[in-house]
Write a structure and sequence with these properties.
The protein has 325 residues and is α+β, with helices and mostly antiparallel strands. The protein has three domains: 86 residues, TATA-Binding Protein (2-Layer Sandwich); 111 residues, Elongation Factor Tu (Ef-tu), domain 3, CATH 2.40.30.10; 108 residues, Rossmann fold (3-Layer(aba) Sandwich), CATH 3.40.50.80. Helix 6 runs parallel beside helix 7. The radius of gyration is 20 Å and the shape is globular.
């Protein structure tokens, strides 16, 4: 396991409150300790222990690169005047940053583009399903660096300043495939349209959720969750079975699913609440069922309320916002 420790000597009273709020906002398990709290994420755990006016932070993850994600998350949510003194920091580019090359961009359905990237993809195959795409300004080769205060420093001229999160839909040999939903507008689509074979693209990851640890899985998602749901179904172990309900814009976006262990129901988008109505009327709870749901923020909030009403514990559910209206 990889670990990183740090200390906050000023503004420490706000740290525990921030971690509690983020755990609640993202449906993360929270453990109350005698002198603090511990938050469990898909990237690892964050422990914060109070000692007078000082907070001691301890990060633990399966991969060193995930510590970068945890440190950045802490810096992002702390006030600017709160300083963390980290120990044993790495230097240079983040350990979870991988530089790949564009192979091709193809349209695989009316609502989806497929970006194929080639290079050393082995580090991206194990672990979570999700990555962030980053790109230097054209003609520039400046990549993020880890700063002396532990958080990632991003060049200010990058075409994708929001660093969008996507799912690795599939991989083969030296190639990863990333399916991108074509939102009506967006910087990512403009960036993809300008890509040429051979262009360098930064991929940070892998991370986020991966294969649920269960034998009975109930999957619910809109078009942005389609790549993750299809990967789960395709890579599901032999003793896993379940059902998936997927919302897509049109019949032409329906994919072929080849796994007899899963029943798949396709919904065509009628309105923004179509998925949550289907979830409330069609979900069948059981002690061995794991609920997986991903969609826009409003639908996800409704799904969490529904799961709470059914008393589904957080270790039997993954409910994540993939985008915001």
């Amino acid at each position: 396991m990889a670990t990183n420790t740090g200390h906050i000597f000023d503004g420490s009273g706000r740290v525990l409150a921030v971690l509690r709020a983020e755990a609640a906002a993202h449906d993360l398990p929270l453990t109350i300790l005698s002198d603090g709290i511990e938050v469990t994420t898909t990237y690892g755990s964050i422990s914060a222990r109070q000692d007078g006016k000082t907070v001691h932070l301890s990060l633990t993850s399966a991969r060193p690169g995930d510590l970068t994600v945890l440190r950045d998350a802490i810096h992002q949510h702390l006030d600017a005047d709160v300083h963390v003194e980290w120990r044993n920091l790495p230097h240079g580019m983040p350990e979870n940053l991988h530089i790949l090359q564009v192979h091709s961009v193809t349209q695989i359905s009316p609502a989806f583009l497929r970006l194929r990237l080639v290079g050393d993809v082995a580090p991206l195959i194990a672990g979570g399903f999700h990555i962030r795409l980053i790109s230097p300004a054209r003609g520039m080769q400046r990549w993020p660096q880890i700063g002396t205060d532990g958080h990632t420093i991003w060049p200010d001229d990058m075409p994708l300043p929001h660093r969008p999160v996507y799912t690795i839909a599939a991989s083969a040999d030296d190639t990863v495939m990333i399916d991108v939903f074509r939102h009506a507008t967006g910087r990512t689509l403009r960036w993809i349209a300008a890509l040429q074979p051979g262009d360098e693209v930064g991929v940070m990851g892998p991370g986020g959720s991966g294969m649920p640890k269960t034998k009975h899985l109930s999957l619910w998602g809109d078009e942005t969750a389609l790549p993750a749901i299809l990967r789960i179904i395709r890579d599901a172990p032999a003793d896993m079975h379940g059902a998936a309900t997927i919302l897509v814009p049109s019949n032409a976006d329906i994919r072929t699913v080849e796994n007899a262990q899963f029943r798949v129901k396709w919904l065509l988008r009628d309105d923004q609440d179509h998925l949550i109505r289907a979830l409330k009327s069609g979900y069948q709870d059981a002690l061995d069922t794991f609920l997986w749901c991903a969609a826009d923020g409003a639908q996800v909030q409704a799904a969490r309320i529904f799961a709470d009403q059914l008393n589904i514990p957080k270790d039997r559910r993954h409910i994540a916002a993939y985008w915001q209206l």
